[in-house]
Write a structure and sequence with these properties.
Oligomer: heterodimer
Number of helices of chain B: 10
Largest interface: A-B, 33 and 29 residues
Shape of chain B: globular
Largest sheet of chain A: 5 strands, mixed
Strand content of chain B: 5-15%
Structural class of chain B: alpha/beta
Helix content of chain A: 55-70%
Order of helices and strands of chain B: EHEHEHEHEHEHHHHH
Distance between the termini of chain B: 28 Å
Number of helices of chain A: 17
Shape of chain A: elongated
Helix content of chain B: 40-55%
Strand order of the largest sheet of chain A: 5-6-7-9-8
Strand content of chain A: 5-15%
Distance between the termini of chain A: 18 Å
């Protein structure tokens, strides 16, 4: 069970892009782009050079913060979001090129950073969009910013520019206000100390976004306005990172991350969970106790019962089945403890579901194996019934026909002879039916004998190697293996058009490995092969697995492993 | 001709008895358990033992095992194995205990062939006189394998002839089956002996050795 669990753990761990890899890729891309942009920049114009430098510095700041957040919270998307903002600024440095098309595109792209800032305000501090209305607001932010910037560029130098910038200012203030409402409503639900911890971000971010357009009204010259805007833009991610990952909200953010991890199947085992909770609550003595009914006590990870509660230790009960045992002097954040209890409950629930699922999967597998064995047993009984009854009767009937012929003369004797031949034909048909239902060799001699019989009837040269050792296989395994091999040979001949085949039977302790390699057309896969589906079904019914590879002879190499205990 | 019949089905033994008595044989014992076969054969010394394969006590290949033991102990007694199915593996085991110097031969036929009373009588007679008789079904599997082997150097016609020899056919029957003269058949068989490097030896039944060597690639 344990290795299975670990395998599942690894299998689910696909969404977490390694932050270090992301840092390498994004950093490299940014540096390459900035270099290109610097080469293309209009170095003759001091304004252009200044714009390039300011934009590049802002981009670097933005990317630095983004990557730091990414590393701190590898499975949250906030780090990636901030990096997107940084890359928009990197693209924005192309405003310094003399090429007007590139400059316009760069101006539009760089404006997206404003929308990223709104986005950050709305998802502060945990990185989650709180609901559909907030989600709509985020999308609206991107749309308004892009359209506003396009209008701005269109109107530049025309009398309409005043109107456009007026509308833009109004839109910016409205968006800031709406994002502010979302944030404030969230803060109102929080406890007093947490609200206080969030206040610096609230003021900084809303102030910065509000000032972004207002700064254009101040007569400080376009260069100063531009640089002030960049500073304001970068202030929001800085405030976000400091507010969410340090100070009073850091623990809360980490708890929310842990909760999301637990629900997504990460941090699934108890030891990891315990260690992360202990780290978050700052209490290294924290123990997660699970109720053990057979012991009548809560036990820790190594199976020892927890000591009785005393005044120095606090305990939080999660229903009847678990407790968090902590040092009440050290872990004194009641709200954080409550949240930790909630996370533990979610983890237990998930664990129970997983266990139930595994159990029902095992039950299905077992019942399928029982059905498969019952079907094979039924085939054996059917074949035996025919062998002992019908086949013998047909021999006697044939003898009777011969006797009749002896007693008759003329045309009647000829008819008796014909009758005898028809009986012989029917007997041949019954032989085929009995053979297909359950080969006599399998009943009389077992698997190896039956397989070599099967191979005798294969119309292409077929090599057969069997290494089965001394301990006999059960009838159930022998029958499953035989029919699997029969399907595999049929497949090789019918679909692969093989002209030579190698069949190998090998037993390693509890596993019977069947392999059929051919020199046919190859390219068999479990998904597409017509014949492979029925082989896989046969193998899975017996609790085995099918794998497909390439044979040395150029065709397919099909392998089935069956458990044989 | 004195015969022991071993089969666990009473009705089948009766049918067999009728066919054998029709050809003038005397049934000296009927046995329904493979464990009793060797003792009865040793005691009664029949000319031929005719036995089923799937028999008590285990209902697996008990009859065949008994037949192989009888062959090993009493090469003068012919052994004819009957079964509802014929298999190369069993044929090879029987060929391995043929003895070209012995009076008794070895046969392996589908039970259904009993109903073809005249041909069955020929087969019994061939086994009685030390010949080898294989069922056409199993002979076909084995000859097609022999044909694929690169070591065999027979011509297509010789393949046809030896295949019929392996079924226990006399030269006259082979000639009729292949529309040849009997003289031509004798010539073909002589060349087959050469091809299989069988020296002239009055003591041995060269037909038996040729069949065994041809069908099992070597041991003869």
């Amino acid at each position: 069970m344990k290795p299975d669990h670990e395998r599942r753990y690894r299998a689910t761990n696909i969404s977490g892009t390694d932050p270090r890899l992301a840092a390498g890729v994004i950093g490299g891309f940014a540096i390459a782009t900035l270099t290109l942009s610097a080469v293309l920049a209009d170095s003759a114009s001091p304004t252009a050079v200044l714009a390039f430098v300011a934009m590049a510095v802002a981009a670097a700041a933005y990317l630095g913060i983004g990557l730091w957040v990414w590393i701190r919270r590898p499975r949250s998307r906030v780090g990636a979001l901030i990096c997107v903002g940084g890359l928009c600024l990197v693209a924005g440095t192309f405003t310094a090129t003399p090429n007007p098309v590139a400059a316009v595109l760069a101006a539009i792209t760089s404006a997206i950073v404003i929308a990223v800032d709104y986005h950050l305000i709305i998802v502060f501090p945990f990185g989650r969009v709180p609901g559909p209305r907030a989600r709509a607001l985020v999308v609206l932010g991107y749309v308004v910013v892009i359209i506003g910037q396009i209008a701005n560029l269109q109107a530049q130098g025309t009398p309409a520019s005043v109107v456009v910038s007026g509308i833009n200012t109004a839109a910016a203030v409205t968006l800031t206000g709406a994002a502010g409402v979302v944030l404030v409503r969230r803060l109102l639900r929080w406890s007093e100390p947490r609200r206080r911890a969030a206040l610096p971000f609230l003021i900084t971010s809303l102030g910065a976004t509000a000032l972004l357009t207002i700064v254009l009204l101040f007569p400080i010259g376009p260069i100063a306005q531009f640089i002030t805007q960049l500073v304001l833009l970068v202030l929001v991610p800085i405030a976000f990172a400091l507010g969410a990952l340090t100070g009073g909200l850091a623990r809360q953010t980490a708890l929310e991350d842990l909760d999301a991890d637990v629900r997504a199947g990460f941090a699934a085992d108890r030891r990891t969970l315990e260690a992360r909770l202990a780290g978050l609550l700052g209490d290294s003595s924290l123990i997660v106790g699970i109720w053990a009914p057979e012991r009548g006590a809560f036990i820790d990870d190594s199976g020892r019962p927890l000591a009785a509660a005393d005044s120095a230790r606090g305990r939080l009960e999660i229903g009847q089945e678990a407790i968090i045992d902590y040092d009440s002097e050290v872990a004194d954040d009641a709200a954080a403890l409550q949240r930790a209890a909630g996370i533990l409950e979610a983890a237990l629930e998930r664990d129970r579901l997983t266990t139930d699922l595994l159990k029902s999967r095992d039950e299905v597998r077992r019942s399928r194996a029982r059905m498969g064995a019952a079907i094979d047993e039924e085939r054996r009984r059917f074949a035996t019934t025919l062998h002992d009854g019908l086949q013998m009767q047909l021999v006697l009937l044939g003898v009777d026909a011969a006797r009749l012929r002896d007693d008759l003369d003329g045309s009647a004797a000829v008819e008796a002879d014909a009758l005898g031949r028809r009986i012989a034909d029917i007997a041949a048909d019954i032989r085929t039916i009995v053979h297909d239902a359950m080969p006599p060799a399998l009943v009389e001699r077992g698997l190896v004998s039956a397989v070599s019989d099967l191979i005798d009837r294969v119309p292409v040269p077929t090599e057969f190697v069997a290494r089965l050792g001394d301990s006999p296989l059960s009838d159930v395994v022998e029958r499953s293996a035989f029919f699997v091999i029969s399907e595999m040979l049929t497949n090789a001949l019918k679909h692969a058009q093989a002209s030579s085949i190698i069949v190998t039977l090998e037993r390693n302790d509890d596993v019977l490995r069947i392999s059929v390699a051919d020199d046919g057309v190859g390219g068999a896969t479990v998904g597409t092969g017509i014949g492979l589906r029925s082989i896989a079904d046969r193998a899975e019914t017996a609790g085995g697995v099918l794998s497909v590879g390439r044979a040395a002879a150029g065709g397919s190499h099909i392998m089935v492993e069956l458990p044989c205990v | 001709m004195r015969v022991i019949i071993a089969d666990d089905e009473l009705l089948l033994r009766q049918g067999l008895r009728w066919v054998l008595e029709r050809m003038g044989a005397e049934i000296v014992a009927e046995i329904d358990d493979a464990d009793d076969v060797v003792a009865a054969t040793t005691q009664l010394r029949p000319d031929i033992l005719i036995t089923d394969i799937r028999m008590p006590p285990t209902m697996r290949d008990d009859g065949l095992q008994a037949a192989l033991r009888v062959r090993a102990q009493h090469p003068e007694i012919g052994v004819l194995v009957l079964s509802q199915h014929v298999r190369r593996e069993y044929a090879e085991e029987l060929l391995a205990v043929t003895d070209a110097r012995a009076a008794g031969g070895v046969g392996y036929l589908l039970k259904q062939r009993v109903a073809d009373v005249d041909e069955f009588a020929d087969a019994v007679a061939a086994v009685r006189s030390g010949g080898t008789v294989l069922d056409p079904d199993v002979a076909e599997i084995m000859t097609s394998r022999a044909r694929r082997r690169s070591t065999t150097v027979l011509t297509p016609r010789q393949h046809e002839v030896i295949a019929l020899v392996s079924r226990g056919y006399s030269n006259a029957r082979i000639a009729a089956a292949l529309s040849l003269t009997e003289r031509a058949v004798v010539k073909h068989i002589g060349r087959i002996y050469d091809a299989l490097s069988l020296p002239e030896d009055l003591e041995i039944n060269r037909r038996v050795v040729a069949v065994t060597r041809y069908l099992t690639d070597g041991a003869g």
